[in-house]
């Protein structure tokens, strides 16, 4: 039987997850396959990267995984990562008020305070801001369609203070994008579910069902860094599958319904293709196969972000603030957007005498960290952290990591955009599928899941194509 030749382009978590799922399907269905993973960089992981800072392996891209689906833990277990799993020492965090760090109140859902008159909420929003949010069940406010922008809807419901002081900084921490642009249904579908339960958003959120008892959910990481997950996924594939430092330049139609994939080393034919890339990179490759789809994919916008990991002598700070870190709301000239106290959040990173911080800079429409050199970036960040935390010494070591593109912006209209992209992909006469953070969630768990979804879609397509073909010609070796 001639093996099916399948290519995955992009060895981030989405692409690796897709490659592993294709490998699994080929074994389960006893269909020989030759899988090739093309990756532009000299390593796997994409936006997941662990690096040494002051002798510690820390994450300089994604640094924690929010597990909502128990099957994620099963996947990690199957990869032999049980002993590597770590949970945060603390998940409480603060928001910089302009003068001091104010703890994020307990009982919020993506920054929406379920009980606005609680003292913690009053500290965050002020008495008028809290009162305004408290009145939502009586005043109600605007209704919302799934693909509308989140900011105006929540402002109409809860008032400006709740959005500016809680929701927007929290969204910025996840999406590096502003509440007024992001799509409710794409970034906060649980708010729509709450409105399905009750006309009042707050009442609906309070009725939200609790996670089933015993469900393994919450934030996790890996002792040796999240890149280990990418390495384990890659390690499960045939060693010859992985082609690092091999950017794909284009995909073109080839005879017999195949696709010709072009790299700097020549071109090869494949029976199926998974593009697990940022949308603009997928657009470039699809220009030759599907120009209309490529145009649609180019509409997805991204934010750019830098992480700056800093090791200070512990004596640089007189008193460590509690919690896992803080977020900084938007204001003109903002330098640091968030800071994680890495060794408080992750106890395994604690070392005597060292304070380990990770700052984030940049975000939607704010590309300055890409435009300055490392020394300027580190000095600016240190100057601002000194103000926020009262640091008295300079860092012993700093590591800068720039991410461009970093995070797709699920703007209002994202759901319609995704439907349109998926319809165009389904209508292609070539077996190509798309996967990755651009479509169904930016978090690592969503990307792992999307890789599996895309692989299954491709496998199904190849199966039905082969079934149709085998009616015409027997013994072609397809599933
Ligand atoms: C700074 C930062 C912090 C984050 N923090 C978290 C977090 O704490 N928790 C969380 O869950 N998520 C976090 N995320 C989001 C998450 O890391 C990403 O959404 C996810 O890793 C994206 O995976 P992906 O495989 O879809 O894409 P990517 O990781 O972008 O992978 C795409 C791969 O394709 C390769 N590529 C591009 N073009 C080509 C080409 N032409 N040919 C071959 N290869 C190509 C790239 O080199 C890359 O390796 C963070 C993201 C960033 C940037």
Task: Note the main sheet.
Answer: 7 strands, mixed
Measured between the Cα atoms of the first and last residue, the distance is 10 Å
The CATH homologous superfamily of the largest domain is called: FAD/NAD(P)-binding domain
What structural class results from the helix and strand content?
alpha+beta
| Shape assignment | globular
For the secondary structure, the number of strands is 22
* Percentage of residues in helical conformation: 25-40%
Mean pLDDT value: 93
**Rg calculated over all Cα atoms:** 24 Å
Low-confidence stretches: 471-479
Bound molecules: flavin-adenine dinucleotide
CATH topology of the largest domain: FAD/NAD(P)-binding domain
CATH top level of the largest domain is Alpha Beta
Domains, number: 3
Strand content: 15-25%
């Amino acid at each position: 039987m001639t093996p099916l030749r399948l290519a995955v382009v992009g060895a981030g978590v989405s692409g690796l997850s897709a490659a592993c799922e294709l490998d699994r399907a080929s074994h389960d269905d006893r269909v020989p396959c030759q899988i090739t993973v093309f990756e532009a960089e000299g390593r796997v992981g994409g936006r997941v990267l662990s690096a040494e800072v002051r002798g510690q392996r820390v994450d300089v891209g994604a640094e924690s995984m929010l597990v909502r689906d128990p099957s994620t833990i099963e996947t990690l277990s199957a990869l032999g990562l049980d002993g590597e799993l770590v949970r945060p020492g603390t998940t409480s965090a603060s928001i910089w008020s302009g003068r001091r760090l104010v703890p994020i109140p307990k009982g919020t859902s993506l920054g929406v305070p379920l009980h606005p008159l609680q003292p913690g909420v009053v500290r965050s929003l002020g008495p008028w801001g809290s009162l305004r949010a408290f009145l939502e069940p009586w005043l109600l406010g605007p209704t919302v369609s799934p693909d509308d922008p989140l900011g105006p809807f929540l402002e109409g419901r809860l008032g400006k203070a709740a959005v500016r002081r809680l929701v927007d900084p929290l969204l910025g921490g996840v999406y590096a994008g502003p509440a007024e642009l992001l799509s409710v249904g794409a970034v906060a579908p649980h708010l729509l579910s709450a409105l399905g339960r009750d006309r009042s958003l707050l009442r609906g959120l309070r009725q939200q069902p609790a996670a089933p008892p015993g469900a393994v959910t919450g934030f996790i990481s890996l002792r040796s860094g999240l890149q280990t997950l990418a390495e384990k996924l890659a390690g499960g594939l045939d060693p010859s599958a992985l082609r690092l430092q091999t950017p794909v330049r284009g995909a073109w139609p080839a005879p017999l319904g195949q696709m010709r994939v072009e790299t700097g080393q020549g071109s090869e034919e494949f029976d199926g293709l998974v593009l697990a890339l940022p949308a603009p990179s997928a657009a470039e490759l699809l220009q030759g196969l599907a120009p209309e789809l490529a145009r649609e994919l180019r509409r997805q916008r991204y934010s750019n972000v830098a992480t700056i990991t800093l090791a200070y002598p512990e004596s640089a700070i007189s008193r460590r603030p509690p919690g896992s870190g803080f977020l900084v709301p938007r204001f003109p000239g903002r330098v640091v957007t968030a800071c994680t106290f890495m060794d408080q959040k992750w106890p395994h990173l604690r070392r005597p005498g060292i304070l380990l911080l990770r700052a984030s800079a940049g975000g939607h429409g704010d590309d300055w960290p890409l435009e300055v050199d490392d020394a300027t970036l580190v000095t600016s960040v240190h100057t601002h952290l000194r103000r926020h935390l009262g640091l008295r010494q300079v860092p012993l070591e700093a590591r800068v990591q720039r991410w461009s593109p970093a995070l797709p912006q699920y703007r209002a209209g994202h759901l319609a955009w995704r439907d349109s992209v998926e319809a165009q992909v389904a209508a292609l006469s070539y077996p190509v599928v798309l996967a990755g953070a651009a479509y169904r969630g930016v978090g690592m768990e969503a990307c792992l899941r999307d890789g599996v979804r895309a692989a299954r879609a491709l496998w199904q397509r190849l199966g039905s194509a082969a079934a149709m073909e085998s009616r015409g010609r027997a013994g072609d070796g397809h599933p």
